[in-house]
Task: inverse folding
């Protein structure tokens, strides 16, 4: 098989790239190691920045999101017994976020690709990337146990943080910059109407907690837990007790409980590889960078990367000019590092770390207090939270 762009991974990055390339008349094949059912069911991100929403709308895949997505104009910070609203729209000239599950974005993109005649090869196993430093890179993989080969002009590594793409780059080429945090998140999805209409980030002596949602009938909640915590140790009762303790306040506001239909624990990590490219392999999304979820940036970065990559590939296929491809990594990394900083900052401000002393806790409280009392400080949070402008990564300014 031959195509112009071989894409590894059918997550938001790989699917959106394939969709954008198709709109520019460029052929691609997406290879995904899991089944369609699996990728459409995986519960992950929920917050879409305005730029992500705009791109989905502009490229014809926003119809269901416009109907079912929940537009939010503010978020809440809860600490010291009080709750404080950060008015995202007022602070950013009318921008906001949309709450719409990542797996819904994935479903919409898969449908759009298949309806347009695109090829997504699910259950494509044991992918191996070859000849990346030549003009004819190849991908070998197994499908139903049979060996297959895809020859391409370019390979896009959109296979997440545990994928094969990054590992296919020879040792010594990439710099890997990372940080791990001494805690994890336990996330649940509950069949319960959200008890509040906006997200609540809670700083609490028992640890961080987050109130979010997926629909008028589904509440999404997170708890800070130990990094090596096993989900078996968390009965539904224990989860609800802890959520009530960390999220509820004296003013009588109460969480709605309901059957827990999904639960899991995720480690917290920051990681960036530089550059996001080797030969004819371009890394995009989680395969190139990981942020802790506190800033809600991961999926948005993945979408921002492939927007840049699709434009650069289109310029190349149209004129043979490689300038935009050469700028791909520095262009993306400017946005990536801003998101890394913001996510690290939100994480450090809102979580309790094992060795934290009273001094550290006072610093966190002072930072939270500053955000809710100073328009400059809350504007900075809001500007980062709703997402930076599309031209943020331009390298010529
Ligand atoms: P994905 O989604 O991991 O997709 C990669 C795909 O590649 C496949 N794959 C392979 N396919 C073929 N061959 C191989 N060798 C392969 N190896 C892997 C995988 O099966 C998969 O289908 O990466 P992508 O597209 O870069 O997207 C990144 C996002 O998924 C991620 O950044 C977000 O989920 C992060 N995130 C959040 N991001 C936000 O923007 N807003 C949020 O509110 C938000 N909340 C979250 C999050 C992530 C979380 N977890 C579980 C890590 C909340 C949580 C709890
Ligand atoms: C979510 O709804 O899953 C969510 C919301 C905000 C975050 C992270 C995850 O910061």
Result:
């Amino acid at each position: 098989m031959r195509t112009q762009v071989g894409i590894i991974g059918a997550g938001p990055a790989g699917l959106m790239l394939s969709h954008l390339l198709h709109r520019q008349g460029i052929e691609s094949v997406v290879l995904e190691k899991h089944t369609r059912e699996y990728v459409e069911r995986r519960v992950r991100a929920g917050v879409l920045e305005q730029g992500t929403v705009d791109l989905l709308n502009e490229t014809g895949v926003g119809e269901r999101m416009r109907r079912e997505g929940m537009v939010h104009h503010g978020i809440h910070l809860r600490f010291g017994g009080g709750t404080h609203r950060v008015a995202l729209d007022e602070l950013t000239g009318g921008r906001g976020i949309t709450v719409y599950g990542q797996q819904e974005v994935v479903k919409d993109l898969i449908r759009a690709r298949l309806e347009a005649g695109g090829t997504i090869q699910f259950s494509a196993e044991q992918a191996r990337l070859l000849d990346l430093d030549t003009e004819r890179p190849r991908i070998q993989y197994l499908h139903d146990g049979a060996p297959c080969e895809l020859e391409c002009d370019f390979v896009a590594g959109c296979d997440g943080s545990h994928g094969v793409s990054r590992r296919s780059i020879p040792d010594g080429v990439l710099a890997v910059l990372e940080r791990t945090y001494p805690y994890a998140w336990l996330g649940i999805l509950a069949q319960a109407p959200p008890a509040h209409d906006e997200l609540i980030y809670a700083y609490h002596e028992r640890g961080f907690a987050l109130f979010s949602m997926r629909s008028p009938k589904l509440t999404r909640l997170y708890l800070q837990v130990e990094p090596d915590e096993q989900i078996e140790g968390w009965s539904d009762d224990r989860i609800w007790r802890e959520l009530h303790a960390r999220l509820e306040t004296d003013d009588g506001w109460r969480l709605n409980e309901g059957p827990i239909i999904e639960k899991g624990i995720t480690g917290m990590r920051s990681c960036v590889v530089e550059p996001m490219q080797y030969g004819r392999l371009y890394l995009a999304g989680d395969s190139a960078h990981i942020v802790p979820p506190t800033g809600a940036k991961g999926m948005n970065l993945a979408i921002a990367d492939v927007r840049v990559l699709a434009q650069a590939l289109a310029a190349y296929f149209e004129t043979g000019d490689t300038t935009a491809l050469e700028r791909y990594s520095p262009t993306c990394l400017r946005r990536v590092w801003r998101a890394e900083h913001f996510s690290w900052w939100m994480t450090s401000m809102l979580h309790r770390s094992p060795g934290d002393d009273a001094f550290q806790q006072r610093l966190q409280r002072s930072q939270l207090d500053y955000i809710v009392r100073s328009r400059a400080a809350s504007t900075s949070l809001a500007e980062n939270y709703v997402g930076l402008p599309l031209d943020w990564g331009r390298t010529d300014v």
